[in-house]
Design a protein that fits this description.
The protein contains eleven helices and eleven strands. The protein is an alpha/beta fold. The strands form two sheets. Strands 1-2-3-4-5-8-7-6 form an eight-stranded mixed sheet. A three-stranded antiparallel sheet has the order 9-10-11. The structure holds S-adenosylmethionine and iron/sulfur cluster.
Length: about 325
């Protein structure tokens, strides 16, 4: 959507200054819709809009409306930091958005500000409730848990979600991009997150949505909803991953931890025909061999360990979560 963001989350894009992609290099809505139309015959059914902060992209509801009019697309979702959701939720809903993920890593206003560097928790919570009131369903909360930063927010977030009907998805802190200077010690493993929740709110396994979602779900035994955990570091799911990503500047990326990506925009702007582009996309996808998370876990367990600096990766802000 865009690589621009009004927050500077310490685990994603902490730099105060960042050279944003030149606007001319960003895919237009027309180009994005063309890619989606071409991807439908290849099996794409679900779209997630992310970033950067997608709500910073001008006239986003227009894109949602255009995407929801594409035959074969069954589901449109969006991941946002929520800062502009208060004003935009109704327009997004009426444009055809179905569900939404709002990122909230702490319910403590000061800690929230420390993590996001620029975020205002109050404003984001207003956005979260506005999404629910606008009829988006489900409204999920994404929370990245980082050692020494917000482990003690886990139970507060779970209690908040249960009280207000939001599904919480905890995400293991990952080494996406390089700006965050990730270290394995900062990742709180799924097992620990689960144990903390289970000790207070007993859980039972509920599997992965659709069999291949990134999150493994757990149901509260008292029937009050579910919680999900995305464990790409400690329990890689490369074998079932079916997510293709389109960067803001038009690269087709076959893995969240890719070094570069494949230049789709060059083809879109070279005058190539639909069949040619579709065949190219199919070839890129069927030629993929990515299993980065599985390889990382092997390296972590090896005597030499895993060195995140040895692997360049696209910044999360360009790629989207
Ligand atoms: N700006 C939007 C937001 O924050 O929701 C959308 C883009 S953000 C890159 C998408 C998701 O990735 C967010 O839920 C964010 O918390 C998560 N994320 C970013 N960096 C991460 C990291 N290093 N490890 C795990 N999750 C991360
Ligand atoms: Fe921006 Fe989202 Fe990254 Fe935070 S996680 S810096 S809100 S893109």
């Amino acid at each position: 959507m865009t690589d621009r963001c009004n927050f500077r989350c310490t685990y994603c894009m902490p730099f105060d200054h960042y050279d944003w992609i030149d606007k001319r290099e960003i895919l237009t809505y027309e180009e994005i819709c063309r890619v989606v139309r071409l991807a439908v015959p290849l099996g794409v059914r679900k779209i997630r809009l992310t970033g950067g902060e997608p709500l910073l992209r001008r006239d986003l509801p227009d894109l949602v409306r255009q995407l929801s009019g594409i035959g074969g697309i069954e589901d449109i979702a969006l991941t946002t930091n929520g800062s502009r959701l208060g004003e935009m939720a109704p327009a997004l809903r009426s444009a055809g958005l179905k569900r939404i993920n709002v990122s909230i890593d702490s319910l403590d206003p000061e800690r929230f500000k420390r993590i996001t560097k620029r975020g205002d928790l109050d404003e984001v919570l207003k956005g979260l409730f506005a999404a629910r009131d606008a009829g988006l369903k489900p409204v999920k909360i994404n929370a990245v848990i980082e050692r020494g930063v917000n482990e003690d927010d886990i139970l507060d977030l779970v209690a908040f979600g249960r009280e207000h009907g939001f599904v919480i998805r905890f995400i293991e802190y990952m080494d996406v991009g390089t700006a965050n200077a990730w270290r394995l010690e900062r990742t709180v493993p799924k097992k620990e997150i689960l144990e903390r929740i289970n000790a207070r709110f007993p859980l039972e396994p509920a599997g992965r949505e659709g069999g291949n979602a990134p999150a493994v779900d757990y149901a509260f035994r008292d029937g009050k909803g579910t919680v999900g955990i995305v464990a790409s570091v400690t329990e890689p799911f490369c074998g079932t991953c079916s997510r293709g990503r389109l960067t803001a500047d038009g690269r087709l990326v076959t893995c969240l931890f890719s070094r570069t990506g494949h230049d789709l925009k060059a083809r879109l702007r070279s005058g190539a025909g639909d069949d040619e582009i579709r065949q190219w996309m199919e070839a890129v996808w069927s030629g993929r061999t990515d299993r980065f998370s599985a390889e990382r876990l092997q390296a972590i367990r090896s005597p030499d360990g895993y060195d995140p600096e040895k692997h360049d990766k696209i910044e999360m802000i360009t790629l989207g979560g």
